[in-house]
Amino acid sequence: MDPSTSSSATKTIPLPDIIPELRIGDVWLEDGNIILAAQGVSFRVHRSVLSRHSEVFQDMFSFPQPERNSPSPTLYDPEKLQGCPIVQLSDSPRELSHFLSALYDGRSYFSRDCALEFDAIIALIRLGTKYQATSLRKEGLHRLKIIKALITNEDAALTSLSDYRRDLASPWKKENSITLVNLAESLDLEKFLPLALYGCCQLDDALIDGITHQDGSLETLSRPNLKRCLAARNQLAITQIRIIWLSREDNADPESSSDAQYRDMASVEEVGYVVEWDERD
């Protein structure tokens, strides 16, 4: 259900204090027995389904429900909505929606004619890792590897990916680079950092200002990564100029050129990589 249609629900459903306004997410099952609340958006689902696919939720539900005002830290809140206990999560509603849709729709979710959007792939990896939903994390990483291989023309990598299909790769936008940098750093996915950082170096104002997702949330680079990209831009510019000079036929032999600028460029030391490629699994 579209959250914009949930205004009538706030008039008819008595809400606990922790949910001042009911905004229903895409996954709201009337026979669900637990509610996941993420930044004001609620999803009604089944504890058994969450437990079956996520070790984290399985462990969470195995503990007794705490008393209200219990000093023990917990995701559970004994307050209920429509008879369902509420679990407060810190996740983005957008990513949680992708995660739950994949969890419930399973094979049909991954067998759509069009590729999954980039945000969905990131959600499967991030939340699949956080909640130890192994199958979703694996599927997300599989599709991200295909995107990386297509962009960098890694034929060997493409042929090594089992069940490779080009239509599994969502269209790459350079604005995705900021999200990919943050994901790769937070989850130690170093093999994706070179591609992501290089993409950030090609951004204009977005490199400084960040990108705004469809739900209005803003995502930016960390200060260290921003400094790395700004420094790398200068290195890349020098390298590109050098390549242009080297590609000119009249400059094929540096010794035969009387152009001082060419000789200066030809003597520039090799530019160091922002990060080294790591092809380990």
Fill in the keyword field for this structure.
disordered N terminus; two-stranded antiparallel sheet; elongated; disordered C terminus; 11% strand; 281 residues; five-stranded mixed beta sheet; alpha/beta
Description:
With 281 residues, the chain is α/β, with parallel strands linked by helices. It has a domain at 1-90: 2-Layer Sandwich (Potassium Channel Kv1.1, Chain A). Helix content is 46%, strand content 11%. The protein contains 13 helices and 7 strands. The chain has helices at residues 9-12, 47-53, 55-62, 93-105, 107-110, 118-130, 134-152, 155-160, 176-186, 193-201, 206-209, 223-247, 260-266; strands at residues 23-28, 34-38, 41-45, 76-81, 84-89, 211-212, 218-219. It is elongated, with a radius of gyration of 24 Å. Residues 1-14, 70-75 and 256-281 have low confidence and may be disordered.
Short description:
With 281 residues, this protein is α/β, with parallel strands linked by helices. The chain is 46% helix and 11% strand.
SSE layout:
Layout lengths: L8 H4 L10 E6 L5 E5 L2 E5 L1 H7 L1 H8 L13 E6 L2 E6 L3 H13 L1 H4 L7 H13 L3 H19 L2 H6 L15 H11 L6 H9 L4 H4 L1 E2 L5 E2 L3 H25 L12 H7 L15
Parallel strand pairs: 1-3, 2-5
Antiparallel strand pairs: 2-3, 4-5, 6-7
Helix pairs in contact: 2-3, 4-6, 6-7, 9-10, 10-12
- Could you give the order of the helices and strands? HEEEHHEEHHHHHHHHEEHH
Strands, total number: 7
User: Beta-sheet strand percentage?
Assistant: 5-15%
* Overall pLDDT level: 75
